[in-house]
Amino acid sequence: MQEDMGSAKAEGFLRKLGRIIGSAVDWFEVTILAGGTAALAVILIANVIARTFFQSIYYAEELSLFLIILVTMVGVSYAARKARHIRMGAFFDLMPPKMEKIFIFVISGVNAFVFFLLAYHSYDYVHKMQMLGQRTAALQIPYWIFNLIVPIGFALAGIQYIRTIIKNIVEKDVWLSPEQQSEYEDEATLGY
Predict the structure, then answer these.
(1) Model confidence pLDDT, tens digit, residues 145-173
(2) pTM, whole model, 2 decimals?
(3) Which of 58, 73, 95, 149 can bridge 100 by disulfide, Cβ–Cβ 3.0-4.6 Å?
């Protein structure tokens, strides 16, 4: 009896910890996406105004490139966590929930593998760039720093797919991502 209470407390603690980590990751990703997009807009608009009336901002292109890479890679992780990635919804709608769950396991496992593989290769590329010592033209910042977010973004996306697998193991219902439950509705509940 006490073992059941202990495992229930542990499960409750793990769920709470998962929600806290999920909230922190959500805040981080949304802040980066919103801030990066706003900063990109400000820099590009300021550069257009400066180029029209004065002189172009010499570092605007490099900073814009970095912000585009940052927003793209954080966006990959965000899309995986919120199930905003491309999927074949029509096929899922036709499948029974058990088959849908099996497909989610396979798709999430393959996606996690691919993203971790991409993270490995992009880290290798960044490491080679670091060894070459190449710097950006305007700001003279080591170029590898600009690309460091790429392996991090791929790894975060892989982690989101692993979280999806874990969520589908723990929960009875089908989850497309750690935070998005499947929209599958049984015909019996719809009254057909």
Answers:
(1) 888 999 999 998 898 888 888 888 888 88
(2) 0.78
(3) 95
